[in-house]
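sorry to bug you again but im stuck and you know this stuff better than me. what follows is a protein written twice so to speak, once as letters and once as C-alpha cells for the fold. id like you to explain what the C-alpha cell line says about the fold, in plain words if possible. anything you notice is useful, everything is just below.
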Amino acid sequence: MFLVLKSEEQKGYAERYYMKDLLIGLDLGTSALKGVLISASGDIIAQDKVSTCITRPEPGYVEVSAEKHYSNVCALIRILAEKVPEGSQVRALSMAAASGNTLLAGADGEPLTPIINWMDTRVKERIEEYMPGLDAKGVYPVVGWPFSGTFPLAHLAWFRKEQPDAYRKASHICMNSDYILYKLTGKWGMDYSTATTFFLQDQMKREFYEPFLKMLGIDEEQLSPLSQSGTVLGPLTKQAAQDTGLDTDTLTVLGAFDHPCAARGTGSVEPGDLLMSCGTSWVGFFPVMDRDRAISQNLLIDPFLSPDGPWGTMFSFTGIGVAIDRYIDEIIIDDVEEAHDKYFVFSSMAEKAQLGAGGLILSLEGDTNKALEQGHVLKDTYSRENISRAVMEGAAFLMRRKIEDLAEAGIQASNITMVGGPAESPVWPQILADVTGLEFRIGFGQTAGALGSAVLAGVGSGVFKGLEHGYTSLTCDVKTIIPDQEAHREYSKLAEE
C-alpha cells in the first residue's frame, strides 16, 4: 500500500513526521529488486519492487543484461522518488545486493559482457579445466565462503579462457553491485561484506588476496577500492540524477550483502539472534564472536560488525525457494485463475490441512526434478491441501535440524526473526514456530534487506547517529508468534521417525 498525497497533504505529512530528510534503501535480489523510502523518524513512506531480467541462453547459463539491470534499478528509484512529499528530499540511498554476479567493464564503465549470475553453473563441473591446481579447500579460510564453482572466482576463470579479448580489454572487473554504484556516482567502490561474495578478498585482512589476483592475471587497479559498509561513496552524477528522479546532492552510501543488511534492518545484531530470510534460498544469519567456530561448522562468514562487534555467519538451503515455487506451480495450482494469486491459494490450502499433512513428508533438498516426479505421483494419493501443508512442514523440518545441529556446536538461537515472502503467510510462521519450538518475530515481510540498506544510508549521511539509532527508529508492526506446545510435541515425534 503506497501513499499518494496531494500538495497540501504532502506538506502536512512532512511536518508531522519530520521528513525533511528521507532515505532510500534498495535490495537487489535474485528474482526482484525491492526498495523502500523512509523518513528520519523511521516511517515507511513508500515501498515497491520491479522484476529482474534474468536470461538463460544455454543450459547452465544464467545471465543478466547490465544495461537492463541499471535501467530497472533506476525505474525502482524513480517510483520511490515520485512519493517524496513536497518540502522533503532524499538525503541518501544505499543498497543490499544478492551478490556474486560478475561483469567485465571498459574504461568508462561500459559493459563488455553480460553479468554472470551466481546461479550460473557453466564452470561447476569443469573446475580443473578452468582453474587447474586450485586448492578449493584453501579458499574457505581466506574468503569466508567455501568454493563452489558458481561465484566470481570461477566466472573470471571462464572469462579469461573463453572470452580472452574482453578479458584483456577490461579496465574494471566488478559485480553488478559496484557497477550500479559506478553508474550512480562515477566512482568505483565496494564494501567488505559484498566483497566476500566476490571471492577475491582476504576477509581477515580486508584487502584483495594477491595469490588469486595473480592466478587470474588481475591487477588490483582493475578492482573497486574496499571500504566499510556505511561509507559515503559520493553524490549522484547529473546523468544519474536524471535517470532516477533524484537530486545531484543525494549521497550514495556503501551497503552490504543482502542478509547482513536485513540483519541491520531487523536489529538482529547480537549473538543469540537468528535472522531467517526466506527467498530464492532460505538463509539463517547468526551474529557470532568466534569466526573459527563458524568455520568449523562450514558456515558462510560475513565481516558484519567486526572487528569491534560480531561476525555474521550464514547457513543456506540454496534454491529451496525454487523447489517450493515449482511444487506450487506444477502440483498445487490447478487453473489459470488460481495462478494469479498462487501464494494466497497455497497458504489457504495448507491452512485447511491438519498437522502432519495426512502422513505425507516431503524433502525439499537434493534433486528438485526427482522430488517433483514423486510429487506428481503423490498427487493421486494426497489432497492439494496436504501437499501444501507438507511443503511448508518440509521447509520447517530442514530449519529445525540445522538449528539443533548448530546448538550442539555452541551456536545457540534464542531470538528468531523471519523475513521474506513466507513470513507474510498467515499459517507458515506458526508451523515454523511449532516445529522448532521457538518464538518467531515477523512483520518485516520482504523489505528487511531494503530497510537495512536504508539504515546504512542514514548512518553514512548522518541522519542516524549510529546503527542502533537506525534500526530502533524503524516503525514496523512486529508480531511475535508463540509455539503451540502440544503441536511442538507432535512435530517432535514426527522428527524422530
